[in-house]
Amino acid sequence: MVTVSLCMIVKNEEKTIGGCLSSIAKAVDEIVIVDTGSTDQTKAIVSTFTDKVYPYKWIDDFAAARNFAFRQATKDYILWLDADDILKEEDCNKFMELKKELDPSVDSVTMVYNYAFDEYGNPTSRFRRNRLVKRENDFKWIGAIHEYLDVKGNIVNSDISVTHCRIHRKSDRNLKIFQNRLMRGETFTPRDLYYYANELLDHQKYNKAITYFDKFLATGKGWVEDEISSCGKLADCYNKIGNTEKELESVFRSFRYDSPRAEFCCRLGFHFLNLNRYESAIFWYKLGAGLKPPEDDWGFSNPTCSTWLPHLQLCVCYDRLGNHEAAYEHNELARSYRPNDSSILQNKKYLDALLQKDQ
């Protein structure tokens, strides 16, 4: 059986680090914590799990800190997590089984990252990341911010999920790092342009975000999933500044890079629904409902847009067209995903009454 070092970088994570380490401690053989300047109880908490706690002077470079953490590992493979991540019990059990069965020829194992959730705990944002890598390969982290692990070789896609449990409010730390880099005259890579635009959007600097998303797309050198994502975020920006025409144009722009994604189909469905063009809305919602991202898809996806949401909206469209049987059918499909949703239950009550009256 292979051995695993868990390597993490942390700072002032007293509210989450205990839950993170508790969720995975039994499944790893070594825990390496690199602290970049905590002033709370983080170091005291992690010391109950490991004595391998290393101070590190923060230099506004996440890749440098993560690479330092990886260099402290001594086991066969390295697992990385952030302090507000956990492995649920079923995923931890899967991870322990993976350790028993993992072929040493594997260079990396990917896991699904469930990043955001609705009120029922269902993922609304998920994507894959390389999570477990062979230590002797000396894979490096790249990028001062929004860093990525440069991995190649024999990569296995697992069904293990890492669950993000964010409790921190967004800060301007990342935005300031980007701005300081610009002030120093650094040249941004396409990836930098994309993530800087994301930070601008998060801080409601919509016009400037539009400028940098356009700069990123103009390079023609971005990862296709980031290009598609940029089109959606451009649409968000234009929506916020009230430019409906450009919002719609940005949605259709995404089709240049790949076949339609469920998220964009639902946006188009909503657009036509608001114009009372129900047949057009139905076309796009039905298309979205039939689009499922592949299990090994690396791009960001929102399962909402291919599960309950398009069916709920199809219920609305068919009801307004007077086709209550179809409305009921799609509401039931939505209810299969969200059985306790008050809106869906209210629709059921309303449609039950109508259909009984029609008999």
From TrEMBL:
Every Glycosyltransferase 2-like domain range: 5-138
CDD domains from the UniProt entry: Beta4Glucosyltransferase (cd02511)
UniProt KW keywords: Transferase
Coiled-coil segments on the chain, per record: none
GO molecular function, one term: transferase activity
InterPro entries: Glyco_trans_2-like (IPR001173), Nucleotide-diphossugar_trans (IPR029044), TPR-like_helical_dom_sf (IPR011990)
Source organism superkingdom: Bacteria
Protein name (record): Beta 1,4 glucosyltransferase
Species: Paenibacillus baekrokdamisoli
Higher taxonomy: Bacteria, Bacillati, Bacillota, Bacilli, Bacillales
